[in-house]
Design goal:
The chain has about 80 residues and is α+β, with helices and mostly antiparallel strands. About 35% of the residues lie in helices and about 25% in strands. The chain has one domain.
């Protein structure tokens, strides 16, 4: 492994520890639930899910699970429940 690659890996490790460098803007993820697979999206600081519970309640186990997985990567103030 060359020194340039080693330098890039070291920088990546540094970035990974400095979570304030990251700003999630939008993404989509598929979650395999008990009753099927659902797509959760995050766009404009708002969660969405294609499951029936989310459409009726504005939140669901799928969006909550995403927030748990991302943990501290999401800055404070990002609404878990869409309005």
């Amino acid at each position: 492994m060359g020194s340039a690659t080693i330098s890039k890996i070291e920088k990546a490790i540094q970035y990974a520890h400095e979570r304030d460098r990251f700003e999630f803007q939008d993404f989509a993820v598929k979650i395999r639930g008990v009753h099927g697979t659902h797509t959760v999206t995050y766009r404009d600081k708002t969660w969405r899910c294609d499951c029936d519970h989310f459409n009726g309640q504005g939140n669901c186990s799928h969006t909550i699970a995403c927030e748990k997985v991302l943990g501290e990567m999401l800055p404070g103030g990002i609404p878990l429940i869409a309005h």
